[in-house]
Amino acid sequence: MLSDAFSLGRIVNDGLIFKQNFSIRSYEVGADRTASIETLMNHLQETALNHVKTAGLMGDGFGATTEMSRRNLIWVVTKMQVLVEHYPTWGDVVEVDTWVAASGKNGMRRDWHVRDCQTGQTIMRASSVWVMMNKNTRRLSKIPEEVRAEIEPYFLERSAIIDEDSRKLPKLNDDTADYIRKGLTPRWGDLDVNQHVNNVKYIGWILESAPISILENHELASMTLEYRRECGRDSVLQSLTAVSTDSGETMVDSRGIECKHLLRLECGAEIVRGRTEWRPKHAELGEARSTPVENA
Amino acid sequence: MLSDAFSLGRIVNDGLIFKQNFSIRSYEVGADRTASIETLMNHLQETALNHVKTAGLMGDGFGATTEMSRRNLIWVVTKMQVLVEHYPTWGDVVEVDTWVAASGKNGMRRDWHVRDCQTGQTIMRASSVWVMMNKNTRRLSKIPEEVRAEIEPYFLERSAIIDEDSRKLPKLNDDTADYIRKGLTPRWGDLDVNQHVNNVKYIGWILESAPISILENHELASMTLEYRRECGRDSVLQSLTAVSTDSGETMVDSRGIECKHLLRLECGAEIVRGRTEWRPKHAELGEARSTPVENA
C-alpha cells in the first residue's frame, strides 16, 4: 500500500541503512515555528523501531528482537549525543537515515543522519549507545549469543557520525546549579508501554530548569545525555541547570552558551546528566559568536 | 512529489472535503499501546490547517485566510465535541476527512470523520465551532464580507456529524469538584506561534485532575469542551474534576463514568468547561455497562 510504504520507510544499502521521511506537522512546531528538539528526537525513536520492524526482527516488545523477548530483555539507552545544524519548519519534509554498529563488547551503537528532503542539507546528526536490561530484574545483561546472531548481520562498519564527546559530565548539586526546578512528575501521557517514562520526555524536563531567556533567544545546537537510571510513573524529579557563556560569565547574551544539567529523584538518585550548547536564534553553525540576536 | 502528496493530503468531492492519512507513530501511543486523545486531536488540527493551505486560502497566519491576515483576524475555537469509537494502535493508518459549514451568522463549523484506512471502520467523529478574533485587541469580530467571500464557496451543506450536546455544562467550584490539581503552568514547548497555549494542550491539563484509576481502566468515549478564554505563557491554572457513575455514585467501577471539568486561572477566570464520558477499556461502544474491566 502506498501510504504504508511512505509512512513506514524502507531499507536501503544492502539492508544496512533504514530510511524514512517525515513531514513536520503543525503541532510539532513551537512558538518560533520550528520543530522542537523533542519532535526531532521522536522521529529518531520512530525510525529505530521501524528499522527493527522492517528488518523482521521485532519480537513482542517495543524494539526487542524475538530472542530478546524470549529472555525478557529490552534495550535501554545509556548515552545520546545530538548535533542540530538547523531546525525544520512546518511542512518541511525531513529524511532520516539510521543504522547500527557494535559498541564495545556488550553494547550497540545507533546513529542517525537527518537531512532536508528537498535540499539534502544536513539538519541533525545523532549517535547513541544501547545496552540490554532484564525487564523483570531491571539489571543490565550481556548480549546473549542468540541475540548477537540476530542483530550482528545488520551492523554497519562505519565510524560514529559524531566524534564522541568524552568530556566528563559533572554531577550538579544545590550549590553548583544556577536554576533548580522541583516537583516534576510524569503526566499519564508521558508513560510508554512499559509504564516507564520514555527517554525523549526527559529532555523536556531538563529544559524546564533552563531560564526562559535562553529558550527564547537561543536554539539548542548540541546535546549530550548520559542516562543513569530509569524513572517510573510515581517518581518526583528535580531538574538542575548551571549556565556558562564562552567567556565564563554566567550571563545570557548573544554569544554561545553552555549548560550543564542534572535530572535527579528527590532522594538524590541521578536519572540523567547532560550538557547542552546553545547559539543565538537564526545564527548558522559556527557563527554563534558573531551574529546578534534577531528574535529577542 | 510523492511524499508531499501523502503527507499533505488532498481535496476531494468537488473541493469540499479534505482528506489526509496519518500513520500512528510509536511516540503517539501511551502505556496501553493505543493513540492518546491528544494525538487524535492533533491530527484534527493538522488536517484543518492543511485544508486551508491546500485550498490556497492560507494568509500569513496559522489557518487565517489572506483577507483575515490583512485585518489581523484569527480563528478561535469556542466549542469542540468528540466521539471516539475505538483507539488506533502503533502502525495503524487512519484517514481523516474534514469539511466546513456555516454556524449561525458569525461562526464556522468544522467537522471531522476519522476512519481506519484498512477496514473503513469509524474511529472518531468530531464537530467544532470557530469564530474570529482580532489578534491585537483580542476581541471577537463579525465575519467581514471579504472574508465570507473567501470561505463560503468551501461550505458543505450537510448536518453536523454529531448531534449537538446542548446540555448545560456546570461551572465547578471547590465544593462541587472531587479532584483539584493546582499550579499547572505551560511548558515552553506548549506554546504555539502566537505564544498562546494551543487548545489541544488544554485536554492534557483537564485530564490531569482525573483520578489515575479512571485513566488506567477506562478510555475516553466522548468529550465536550467549551472554550471560554485564552491562556498565555505566564498563566497558572487549576484543573477541577467531578466524577459520577451512571448510578449517580461517585465511585470508579466497571460501568460508564461521566466527569465534569473546569480549567480556570488562579484568579477564578474560566478557561474551559468540559464533560467527558468514559467506558471500560476494550469495551465496544454501547456495551459499556456489561463488559468487565480487562486491563486492571
UniProtKB/TrEMBL annotation, chains A, B:
GO terms for cellular component: chloroplast. InterPro entries: Acyl-ACP_TE_C, Acyl-ACP_thioesterase_NHD, FATA/B, HotDog_dom_sf. Gene3D superfamilies: Hotdog Thioesterase (3.10.129.10). It comes from the Eukaryota. Signal peptide: none annotated. Keywords: Chloroplast, Fatty acid biosynthesis, Fatty acid metabolism, Hydrolase, Lipid biosynthesis, Lipid metabolism, Plastid, Transit peptide. SUPFAM superfamilies: Thioesterase/thiol ester dehydrase-isomerase. It is an enzyme of class 3 (hydrolase). GO terms for molecular function: acyl carrier activity; fatty acyl-[ACP] hydrolase activity. Residues 176-279 form the Acyl-ACP thioesterase-like C-terminal domain. Its EC number is 3.1.2.-. It is found in: Plastid, Chloroplast. CDD domains: 4HBT (cd00586). Pfam families: Acyl-ACP_TE, Acyl-ACP_TE_C. Residues 16-151 form the Acyl-ACP thioesterase N-terminal hotdog domain. Plays an essential role in chain termination during de novo fatty acid synthesis. Belongs to the acyl-ACP thioesterase family. This is Acyl-[acyl-carrier-protein] hydrolase. It comes from Dioscorea zingiberensis.
